[in-house]
UniProtKB/TrEMBL annotation:
Entry-linked PANTHER family: HELIX-TURN-HELIX TRANSCRIPTIONAL REGULATOR, ICLR FAMILY, HTH-TYPE TRANSCRIPTIONAL REPRESSOR ALLR
UniProt keywords, alphabetically: DNA-binding, Transcription, Transcription regulation
HTH iclR-type domain residues: 6-67
Name listed for the protein in its UniProt record: IclR family transcriptional regulator
GO terms of biological process kind: negative regulation of DNA-templated transcription
Gene Ontology molecular function terms on file: DNA binding; DNA-binding transcription factor activity
Residue ranges annotated for the IclR-ED domain, each copy included: 68-216
Cross-referenced CDD domains: HTH_ARSR
Any single Pfam family the record assigns to this protein: IclR_C
InterPro entries: ArsR-like_HTH, GAF-like_dom_sf, HTH_MetabolicPath_Reg, Tscrpt_reg_IclR_C, Tscrpt_reg_IclR_N, WH-like_DNA-bd_sf, WH_DNA-bd_sf
Record lineage: Bacteria, Bacillati, Actinomycetota, Actinomycetes, Kitasatosporales
Originating organism: Streptomyces tateyamensis
Length: 216
């Protein structure tokens, strides 16, 4: 801690992080132990966070992340789009394909940013807000693949390619965002042609790396 930071705010943020990482929630005693503070401090922190809807306590007294966090998260997507757009524009123009940033939303893949190429006569129409199961597209499958190798890319390729995707009937390629805390996503392209050129995969990996760097 430095003179410019707030110890109370720091502890409150740490509480939220601990609860976000716990599927079953945590008791006051467990939180006090992990924060290395007494139970009275934890009670005060939880009471304040509850007032703002950021924490809730179940019948058994275990604290969990509250629905207020969802309202905050809704404001994150515009920030992510802004950070990702330069890399997506470059990717779309370079490959002549529709580029997109996709994030995990529950059990689904959600397209939060889409950029179409400006110079092609025809390209795949892909819209922001499109949802589909994670296993139904290159975007979602790249995310699922990344879960098998936390924090790193598969050394043999690092991207996923699909042909005739169920959602669009087009070919797709995507690479997961790597090394980001609290964000699961991928950068990808969808194309009209049935065969994906060999350079598309590495180029998508490059764009995913650029987006991840922009979000750090």
């Amino acid at each position: 801690m430095t003179a410019e930071t707030s110890q109370t705010l720091d502890r409150g943020i740490r509480v939220l992080k601990l609860l976000a990482d716990s599927e079953r929630g945590l008791t006051v005693t467990e939180l006090a132990a992990r924060l290395a503070v007494n139970r009275t401090v934890v009670y005060r922190l939880l009471a304040t966070l509850e007032q703002h809807g950021l924490v809730r306590r179940d019948i058994g007294g275990r604290a969990r992340v509250g629905l207020g966090v969802l309202r905050l998260s809704q404001r994150v997507h515009p920030l992510l789009r802004e950070a990702a757009l330069p890399a997506l524009r470059s990717l779309a123009e370079d490959l002549g394909a529709t580029a997109h940033l996709t994030l995990v939303d529950g059990t689904e893949a959600l397209a939060v940013a889409v950029v179409e190429p400006s110079w092609t006569d025809f390209h795949v129409a892909y819209r922001t807000g499109l949802r589909h199961p994670l296993d139904e597209s290159a975007a979602g499958r790249a995310i699922l693949e990344a879960r098998k190798f936390p924090g790193q890319r598969r050394p043999e390729q690092g991207f996923v390619i699909t042909r005739a995707e169920e959602q669009s009937g087009a070919s797709g390629a995507a690479a997961a965002l790597i090394g980001l805390s609290g964000i699961e996503g991928s950068v990808g392209v969808v194309m009209l042609n049935g065969l994906v050129p060999e350079r598309v995969g590495p180029r998508v990996v490059e764009a995913a790396t650029e987006v991840a760097d922009a979000l750090r």
